[in-house]
Structure formats: structure tokens, C-alpha cells
Design goal:
This protein is of the alpha/beta class. The chain has a single domain (23-348), classed as Divalent-metal-dependent TIM barrel enzymes (TIM Barrel, Alpha-Beta Barrel), CATH 3.20.20. The protein contains 14 helices and 10 strands. A 5-stranded parallel sheet has the order 4-6-8-9-10. A 3-stranded parallel sheet has the order 1-2-3. Strands 5-7 form a two-stranded antiparallel ribbon. The longest helix is centred in the middle third of the chain and has 25 residues, at 148-172. It starts with a helix and ends in a 6-residue tail after the last helix. The structure holds L-rhamnitol and zinc ion (ZN). The site of zinc ion (ZN) has 5 residues, from loops.
Length: 414
């Protein structure tokens, strides 16, 4: 018996349907963020450093400097990633040619190049308004800004972006997730916490006023950012309550956006109990919201387990969100995305019904024993088989292609 058949037989002895697991994995799209390719730079040439309390550190050579380069790099990455993929765009990646278009004036047509790219590469698209790296976001205040003119500029940006998302959804014939994350907050102890939150509430009401076909709206909370350590307007409670009170607006969980001992894997079921959809930003926080490349670590597996064991593959919208400028950026995409998929497969290969029954029956010794034994089941052989059937390298050999791409393309960028 070959290694795959052998591995399959071991899972089947537990009652796991391996073919069904592979089929489910092949159907589940992962939304890959475009911004790993250029350190969240975008194409606007506003002369703005990355702002909003987030940071990409490192200076590995070869980052994409234009839409053409970013698309080529992304296309190279997805050749090495099995299964269904989406691309997650930010408004700052508009392709406007020689003409500069300010954020509140952006239109769907400025994303035509991305729509073509998505069609050529069989990708879905997700979208994000960009509330940072802009002169009017210099105070780290946007939708909660006390200055009405500035606040309304950002409201117009939010509305423009939802229209863009609807335009893309129509062009692709499938829904687009449109995610609002704002950096707003204060460095030090505020004198008024409620005022900014009421302004944010009003801004969101304006942005979401019109229902738009094909758009799935969501809001992303955060605990703190660099330079805004004391107070974040869009906190977890704020957005959870906002989404609960606005049908059609969902609460996105980014697993870098909580205190380090809080686990998103533990929050997901609470969201699933009240919302039909749950969007995620999967990242890897190292001591803070550092957005390191996603590794196949315990929390990633636990997140995947929550998706699978709650039968929520269709309800949880998986997006990645990290940006590491210290390593090859194409490799960063491939490593992180393959890890997300590996975690899903790991979760799909567990006898969940049996494990739940052990919990219900209070048989915790056996439950622990089984959970631990499962960790050393021959999951790698099943993953390799999945990659082979999807026509991508099944092991570290994919890296040869990244090295060749670095030699022939990335290293020529000066
Ligand atoms: C920031 C949020 C947000 C951004 C991207 C670029 O802390 O996680 O999602 O990372 O929109
Ligand atoms: Zn995020």
C-alpha cells in the first residue's frame, strides 16, 4: 500500500471520510490579501508612509511597485497554492493611470484591471476602504473625527467603496465582502470616550444606509494600535453591538486584535450563535498585532477546528491579513495560505461527532487521549495527495519556483 492509502485507512478506521474531507477543502475559498506584496503601500503615490498604527518591518528586496508587478507576483504565488482563492483588495490599490483620484472620488472602473485579473485567474474579490496612509488621516481619526468636513470626507470614501464592491460583485457574478477598519483612537487617556463612538455610529449609519446587491458588509474591531495605545474608538464591544443591531452588517474578527491571552477560536462560536456569517482576518500576532506570516500553530488549528466542527465552512469567510517585509513576499503568501488550508484539512480529518459525544458523556479522559493521539496521525500524506490532485507541488519543492522567480524577476527591481 502506498503512503497515501495507508494514511487514508488510518483515518477511515476512526470513521473519518477522507474523500469527503478533500472535496470540502477543494470547495473552500481563502481570500488572500494583496497587501503582503508591497508592504501595504498601494499605488496612490501620496508620499505617505504607512499610517494608522500598523507597521510592516523589514526591507527584503523586490517588493512590487506597480499594479503590473503586484499582479505578476500574486499570480506566481497562487500557482503554488491549491484550491479556491480570492484576492482581497484595498481602495489604495486603485488603478487610475496617470490621473490621481482622491479616496472619496473612487469608482468601480478604477478596479477594472483587478476584475480582469480576477477573471483570468479564477479568483473572487473582496474589498476594503482605506482609512489610513492619507493626509486626512494624519490625526489617526477618520470616521470619528470631531471636524465634520474630515469626517464627511471619510463617510464619502466608505460609500464610494461599497459602490465599488457592488460594481465588482456584478462584474464577477458573486458577492464581495466589504470590510471597514478604521485606525481611530487616542494615544493617551481621553477626556471623552462616548463622543467619538457616537460620531462613528453616525458615520457608519450614513455609509450603510443604502442596501447594495452583492455586497456583504462588515466592521473590524481592534484593541489598540501603535501611537493610539490608550483608546480605540472601534472596539470589540462597539462593533459587536453595532453589527447585532444592523441586519446585514457583520462583525469581522481579526485574531491579532485582542489581548494576547484572548483567543479568537473561543469567540467564533459566540458569533455563530447570533450571525449567519462570520468574516475573519487570520494573522499571527507576536506579543502585539504584529501581523507575522501565518504559521501552522495551535491557534490556527483551533480556528479551523471551530469552523469545521460547527459545520460552518459556508458561514465563515476566511481572509488572511499579514505583512512581513523581512522575507520573500511571494513565499510569505504561499506559506501563510498553504498553512490556512493545512489547518482546515487537519480539522476536516477529525471524528468530530465522536469527540462531541465524549464531551457530552463527560468522558474527558478519553476525550483528551483522542485529541492528543490525533495530533500525530499521518495528516501530511493526505495534504500531499490533495496538492497532487490540485496540480501544485505537494512539498517544499514549491520553493524552487519562488527562488527562480526571485532570481529572474524580483532581484531585477532596484
Ligand atoms: C489593521 C487591520 C486591518 C489592516 C488591513 C491592511 O490592524 O488588521 O485589517 O491590517 O486592512
Ligand atoms: Zn485585519
Amino acid at each position: 500500500m502506498d503512503a497515501y492509502e495507508n494514511a487514508k485507512a488510518r483515518y477511515e478506521a476512526l470513521g473519518v471520510d477522507v474523500d469527503a474531507a478533500l472535496e470540502a477543502l477543494g470547495k473552500k475559498a481563502v481570500s488572500i490579501h494583496c497587501w503582503q506584496g508591497d508592504d501595504v503601500g498601494g499605488f496612490e503615490n501620496l508620499g505617505q508612509a504607512l499610517s494608522g498604527g500598523i507597521q510592516a518591518t523589514g526591507n527584503y528586496p523586490g517588493k512590487a511597485r506597480s499594479p503590473q508587478e503586484l499582479m505578476a507576483d500574486f499570480a506566481q504565488a497562487i500557482r503554488l497554492i491549491p484550491g479556491k482563492k480570492r484576492i482581497n483588495l484595498h481602495a489604495s490599490y486603485a488603478v487610475t493611470g496617470a490621473q490621481a483620484v482622491d479616496r472619496d472620488k473612487l469608482e468601480g472602473r478604477h478596479f477594472d484591471a483587478w476584475i480582469d485579473f480576477a477573471k483570468e485567474n479564477d479568483l473572487g474579490i473582496d474589498f476594503n476602504p482605506t482609512f489610513f496612509s492619507h493626509p486626512l488621516a494624519a490625526d489617526t481619526l477618520t470616521l470619528s473625527h470631531p471636524n465634520e468636513e474630515i469626517r464627511m470626507f471619510w463617510v464619502r470614501h466608505g460609500i464610494a467603496c461599497r459602490r465599488i464592491a457592488a460594481y465588482i460583485a456584478k462584474a464577477l457574478g458573486q458577492p464581495v465582502l466589504c470590510n471597514v477598519w478604521i485606525p481611530d483612537g487616542y494615544k493617551d487617556v481621553p477626556a471623552d470616550r462616548l463622543g467619538p463612538r457616537l460620531r462613528l455610529k453616525d458615520s457608519l449609519d450614513c455609509i450603510f444606509a443604502q442596501p447594495l446587491e452583492g455586497v456583504i458588509d462588515c466592521v473590524e474591531s481592534k484593541v489598540f494600535g501603535i501611537g493610539v495605545e490608550a483608546y480605540t474608538v472601534g472596539s470589540s464591544e462597539f462593533y459587536t453591538a453595532y453589527a447585532a443591531n444592523h441586519k446585514g452588517v457583520y462583525n469581522l474578527l481579526d485574531n491579532g486584535h485582542y489581548h494576547p491571552t484572548e483567543m479568537v477560536s473561543d469567540k467564533m462560536s459566540s458569533m455563530l450563535a447570533f450571525f449567519d456569517l462570520l468574516p475573519l482576518h487570520v494573522t499571527r500576532p507576536v506579543r502585539w498585532d504584529s501581523d507575522h506570516v501565518v504559521r501552522l500553530d495551535d491557534e490556527l488549528k483551533e480556528i479551523a477546528l471551530e469552523i469545521v466542527r460547527n459545520d460552518a465552512l459556508d458561514r465563515v469567510l476566511i481572509g488572511l491579513d499579514y505583512f512581513d517585509a523581512s522575507i520573500n513576499r511571494v513565499a510569505a503568501w504561499v506559506i501563510g495560505t498553504r498553512n490556512m488550508q493545512k489547518a482546515l484539512l487537519y480539522a476536516l480529518l477529525q471524528p468530530h461527532q465522536k469527540l462531541k459525544e465524549l464531551q457530552e458523556a463527560g468522558r474527558f479522559t478519553e476525550l483528551m487521549m483522542r485529541q492528543e493521539e490525533l495530533k500525530t496521525y499521518p495528516f501530511g500524506e493526505i495534504w500531499a495527495q490533495y496538492c497532487r490532485t490540485m496540480g501544485v507541488p505537494s512539498d517544499e519543492k514549491w520553493f524552487d519556483q519562488v527562488l527562480a522567480y526571485e532570481r529572474d524577476v524580483l532581484s531585477l527591481r532596484k
